[in-house]
Amino acid sequence: MNILTEDDEFVPLHFVFCNFYGENTCFCWNNDKFVMFPYIQEKYTSLLPVFIAPGYIKVIQCFSNRVFFTCLPHGIYKLSRDGRFSVLSKSAISIGSIFFEILKTKDDCLYLENKQKKLSKLLLHLPPMSKQIEELCTFPLNMENLEHEFRNILLDEVNMLDNLCLIGNGKKLFTLTKEVIHLIYSCDNKIMNIVPIQNDNKINGLILITNTDAIIVVHSKNNILCYKKIYLGVDVKTLCTGLNQQHNDKIWIVYSDESKLYYMTMTLSTEIYKKVKTEEKSFVCIQYYKEDKFVGLTKTKELHELSINVIENYVNEEISKDDFIDLHRDMLKDTDLIVEQIYEKAKELELWNKILLTEEDKLYRINLYACKKKIQMYPKMTVYRIAKQLFLNMDFQENLPKNVYIVCSLVSNYETTFSIKEIANNETSIDLPIAIKKLLNSLQIRMDLVTIINEEQPWFLIKDFVTDPIIDRKKKLKEKQKT
């Protein structure tokens, strides 16, 4: 589509599509001059009038079917149906989350001013004489144009119904909602522009364009925000991006430098990206248009509507390659050698694993002694007779530490009978002989734990390692009553 204007010297360098009072309208501009026309497939034969804005145009934004011009160095103006401007603010540098919230600077500070409430609030302190004011970029988001999951991550649940504005200021990215600003990302490079990753009328992520050849893809993954930096290797003049219609895990990116047009695809889950194609085309500005199309503006005042089928075809081919792999005899060559190497490495790994378990067990036993750790349990106790001898059997069915010794002692009539046994598999059973003649009404059973660091180190003893839970509760109750 050729843009025919009454002023032959007017050459637009930027354009944007806006819903201007219910009609899909294209705005093209350069410096303080612009044209506007309904964007349709038919060619225009009549000349378009060139309008003059109140200042050099920085950005054109649409809010609720109304269009606002943000000018340089400051000033925001609303455009009427008949091409006339009304002043929203002559001193504002940008619009916030909604058109009546504007951003202003004063005394090296950034303020948010609510035109309805006639209130002003300090947001940020800026460096003195900073160029960040001129380079500040914003991008408004609302309930209608933001994908639900992405919005939930950007906003708290209590703020689900509020509009949101992203602010790129220098190397930092902020969110602004309910007149509160939050820092969400710090970059190594200056953020120059914020481009949405679109899917029809929904925004699924963002791309931050920096002052270098790097871009940063902002997307959601497992309920967190992820930032992937990609070095494109060229001086990017313009860029647009969108979500793949057939595969929601993939996005497409189209960008242009002074001489070529580049196509790229990226998988969000793995953050793997790849350049798909390069064409000998040059655009001064490109914009997302539909789910499978984008529009580019040339230096010769032409709008070209292009398809992203080249990326869709590439993605489909890659997926089909992943599904079907051709096998060849050469693939089986030297596989026996590979299997032997795997077997040897597995044996080596098993050996190191045993060493690791041994060291962990040593450390655990040292910690047992250092912390004087005790356990509460009820060993299963039974009394049985062999010939004329009675035995007390204590069966420890619950888990006990490995590679330690359990000492069970029976005190009766001032005499102690004990038995010691190693615990190999977390459980054990111990027998104690009982002398019937020496049994009294009072019978004490104690269970201690003996552990060693290794064979060369001394033994450590933990007295009363196994305790009766009921007795422990009674002791604690008595201590509380005393205090």
From TrEMBL:
Name the domain of life this protein comes from.
Eukaryota
Protein name per its UniProtKB record: Uncharacterized protein
| Origin species | Vespula pensylvanica
Record lineage: Eukaryota, Metazoa, Ecdysozoa, Arthropoda, Hexapoda
